[in-house]
Write a sequence for this structure.
């Protein structure tokens, strides 16, 4: 029984690590240190690698028990939700960039970029909070063997 519980929790643990490390810890360090662009780029790359691993695991791993496959696919579904939030954030940021290009005043252009960069964070941040709750519950269920 114990051998089947651990693999079921593995994708959820990977997702929780992704959320905690790449969406909370590294951005806080980036804001505190002033190395915003390099550290946030590292966080995004690390998150995408982690999401890629979860997707690969859900799709190509051979599971002995159907419950293991279900938990793996649930973690992958949550990863896709995070990718959708990334896409919405990127679209908001692109809109802000385009609107700032249309501004004749350089001060107004920089203000628009700041406003849209703050707005662009919101979809990803809300999704990370939602996924923390969902993944905590899924992790607990996978460790119970459900």
């Amino acid at each position: 029984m114990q051998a089947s519980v651990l693999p079921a929790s593995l994708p959820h643990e990977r997702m929780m690590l992704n959320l905690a490390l790449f969406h909370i810890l590294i951005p806080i360090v980036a804001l505190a240190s002033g190395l915003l662009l390099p550290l946030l780029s590292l966080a995004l790359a690390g998150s995408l690698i982690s999401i890629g691993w979860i997707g690969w695991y859900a799709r190509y791993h051979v599971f002995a028990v159907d419950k293991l496959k279900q938990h793996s696919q649930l973690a992958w579904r949550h990863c896709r939700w995070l990718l959708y939030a990334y896409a919405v954030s990127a679209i908001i940021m692109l809109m802000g960039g385009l609107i700032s290009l249309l501004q004749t005043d350089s001060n107004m252009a920089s203000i628009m970029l700041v406003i849209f960069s703050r707005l662009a964070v919101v979809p990803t941040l809300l999704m990370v909070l939602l996924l923390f709750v969902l993944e905590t519950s899924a992790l607990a269920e996978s460790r119970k063997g459900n």
